[in-house]
Amino acid sequence: MKNSQLIMFFTIAFTIYAIGNLYVFMKGYNVLSHARMNRTFYTVVFISLATTFIAGKILESIHSSVFADILNIIGGFWLGFLLYSFLFLFISDIAGLLLRISAGSHLIIDYKKWSFIVTVVLSVILITGGFINAITPRIKKYDIEIDKKAGKTDDFRIAAVSDIHLGSIIRKRSMRVLSDMLNEVRPDVIFLLGDIVDGDLGPVLRGDLLAYFNEPETKYGLYGITGNHEFIGGAERTISYIESKGIRILKDELVFLPDSIQVAGRLDRDSRRHTGKDRLPLETILKDADRSKPIIVLDHQPVALEESKDSGVDLHLSGHTHNGQMWPLNLLTRRLFELSYGHLQKGKTHVIVSSGFGLWGPRIRVGSRSEVVLVDVRLTGRESR
After folding, report:
1. pLDDT digit string (tens) for 149-162?
2. What are the residue boundaries of the structural domains of the chain, listed by start?
């Protein structure tokens, strides 16, 4: 990513974050009593919480440590609190305006006090429930048919895991849970659909976190692709670490599995921002593919669905969206992507987008689930004679 783009991105993100914090801060500040101690204590606590996420990321980039992890975790929960408190307070402001018009201003002071208290309580309840939801991943199962044959096999099982985001928040426990889930479903092949690492590699190396990923023996192997986050901490270094754990990362390349199953792994589309080079067109990657045999494409972001359809792909697997991670952000991802979550069939191409196993920022999921995708593929075609 060019320096100018990076500066603009962080400027916009910081401005939005600062405005949101200021809005919530002033709402609480104004409902407190006029006692100087109360307001001073509130101000100190609020500023401390509001700066934890930024401080954690800065410390993490300088030197990975448990203290930086703690700041990132606290800061993540604060991001969740900020989202929901902003939404609830904004709605209460609209209701307050209607109340002022209909009933006069004498009720407004009590209304503002109770709206702030209710906002804090509801936000904490949502964050608590969202945390419990986030740490209890599920198996999401799909059954699809492909009108082709693949050697002597009539069916096979895929386990697809996207957006693990290993780092300061997703650590050893999550890797053990993921390993247990994969061992339980016994897939024929495992695909890691990008964003295996959250960004800076320091927290991952400090705990050698991928060492705790103990996948089952599979018929066809274990493959991964890059996501946009693999490039944040330096793609070469990150990919080297991932591959040192026996995970083959496909970088705009096609591999041929036993039983004539073909898998194309694409570089993430954001790689251009970091490398200055475009990724290869899918048709180029598939130039040696046998179109009469099953073709699976792994592409982190669900953005090139039409390209997969036009290239005769049978199954396209993506992640990236987290299905919004926290409502109402899933309403935004639905507008940004043709398919932000679930299954869609475009012609003969099956598209599946996962909400991801891990998460970014807040360890919270509201209106979304952490998951491992399980795809049972049934081959219904006949061998050509």
Report:
1. 988 889 999 999 99
2. 3-134, 138-379
